[in-house]
Amino acid sequence: MTEIRRPETMERIATEAQAAAFIEEQVQAIRSQVGDQKVLLALSGGVDSSVVAALLIKAIGQNLVCVHVNHGLLRKGEPEQVIEVFRNQMKANLVYVDAVDRFLDKLAGVEDPETKRKIIGGEFIEVFAEEARKLDGIAFLAQGTIWPDILESEAGIKAHHNAGGLPEDLQFELVEPVRILFKDEVRVVGKALGLPDNMVYRQPFPGPGLGVRCPGAITRDRLEAVRESDAILREEFEKNGLAGKVWQYFTVVPDFKSTGVKDGKRTFDWPCIIRAINTTDVMEVTVEHLSPELMDHLVRRIIAEVPGINRVLYDFTPKPPATVEYE
Ligand code: XMP
């Protein structure tokens, strides 16, 4: 399975009929690969893992065990949506792990960005491995590897994040049903499998989640300010027809305070920075310019609704020199 390559003559999947044919083909391939054995999947709720989950549920139903690790750095409503879509609607065998305290306790006081990333990645593997060890008789691990991952790892651009991260005692045969697809094709297949639009067409989201948007040492109150302001920004982009148009948009709450005034009293609170960017290859990005009306509205809502924020700033910096994320 791992050697399968995208045929050079393969047509780009763009229609529902093409997606249906691909789904049928993969369902058969999955069934012949795994038989009546069990398959494990780390289900983040991102596009790739969600489409893989939906494909495997169709192919093997309860023999797929999905593990959703809530590390406390997900966006508002995401863990709830994973439970709603996969456990309640698709009747998946879903293990939900509330690891929020575990991650945030480990991250407490850690300021260095690279150390934060390492802790989040390392802890994720540990939590996932613990869950895997509790389950008996699992021979397969499903992954949302897509074709650009393979091409980039072959070109030496980035290491393809496969099962390599798991400890020695946990070795599985891989099941990679979307491995020959480009991202746009994964979305078409996800839509055909009945996944909701806000899951299929979601903007990119980094693995370390909101952790990189809460620069410096993460505190629970500042993390909540990031989560709440991000939810307001997403809601307003949705309402104003920008959600499908702007490539990526989010908020950052840096670790410094400034003086303000509210109801005639002094405040000393954080700023909230809005970033909204467009790109095709992520190597170079340009900044989306919002209308003054929307900007005013966002400022008013964030100030009124997010505890701990007394200023809203807009990041007008392209990449280069600024990266998309702050850490
Ligand atoms: P930067 O900040 O490098 O971001 O300009 C480029 C794109 O990559 C996303 N990003 C990540 N994605 N794991 C991911 O899966 C990560 O650690 C990570 N860091 C950045 C970022 O959101 C942007 O779309």
Quaternary state of this entry equals: single chain
Ligand catalogue: xanthosine-5'-monophosphate
Please give the radius of gyration in angstroms.
21 Å
The total of beta strands comes to: 10
Descriptive account of the structure:
The structure is a single chain. With about 325 residues, this protein is an alpha/beta fold. It folds into two domains: about 15-200, 3-Layer(aba) Sandwich (Rossmann fold); about 220-315, GMP Synthetase, Chain A, domain 3 (2-Layer Sandwich). Helices cover about 40% and strands about 20% of the residues. It contains ten helices and ten strands. It has helices at about 15-35, 45-60, 80-90, 100-105, 115-135, 145-155, 185-190, 195-200, 220-240, 290-305, and strands at about 40, 65-70, 95-100, 140, 175, 250, 260, 265-280, 285, 310-315. The chain has a five-stranded parallel sheet, sandwiched between helices. Strands 6, 7, 8, 9 and 10 form a five-stranded mixed sheet that branches. Strand 4 (about 140), helix 6 (about 145-155) and strand 5 (about 175) form a beta-alpha-beta unit. Helix 9 (about 220-240) runs antiparallel to helix 10. The chain starts with 15 loop residues before the first helix and ends in a 13-residue tail after the last strand. The model has no long low-confidence stretch (mean pLDDT about 95). Xanthosine-5'-monophosphate binds next to loops.
